[in-house]
Amino acid sequence: MHKILAVVLLLLMVLALPTRMEAAVPDGTRISNDTLRPMAKWVENATHIKISTLPIVVASGIRLKTSLGLQGIQQARSIAAYLPGQIIINNIIWDPDSLRSQSYIVHEMVHHAQLLGGKSYPCNNAKEREAYLLQNRWLEEHGEDAIVSASWIDEMSTCSRR
Description:
Blueprint: H1 2-16, E1 29-30, H2 33-47, E2 56-59, H3 61-68, H4 72-77, E3 80-83, E4 86-89, H5 99-117, H6 124-141, H7 150-156
Parallel strand pairs: 2-4
Antiparallel strand pairs: 1-2, 3-4
Helix pairs in contact: 2-5, 5-6, 6-7
């Protein structure tokens, strides 16, 4: 009898949980330049590349998934992306008051600076090293833990990775 009650209680708890996360902001929300400027300035100082124009930044899970053509688990895990001149961050995780959320914009802003700086890289993955290292540094300078480990950065930024 106790097992049946435990199963029923567990089932009720599962049914009471939301089936999907509530978005912090509506899909398609444009992030203001006033919000972006401090992050862009930090990236300029860290990369020594002048960010002459800010990218257009939109919080949109739908746009993120369709722009990148992701499927399955990749689509479910997508957080942010840089496309030339624009950053798309998933509106489910974007919170202008969250340092961790802001760090994803910093990461993508590094890619914007890389494009503006015109530096060549041996492969696209190599660009990730600088972006993740600076994202970690930004978080640490703001009193937060790093988002990824050094070994993970090594793995993600190798040119032999597909």
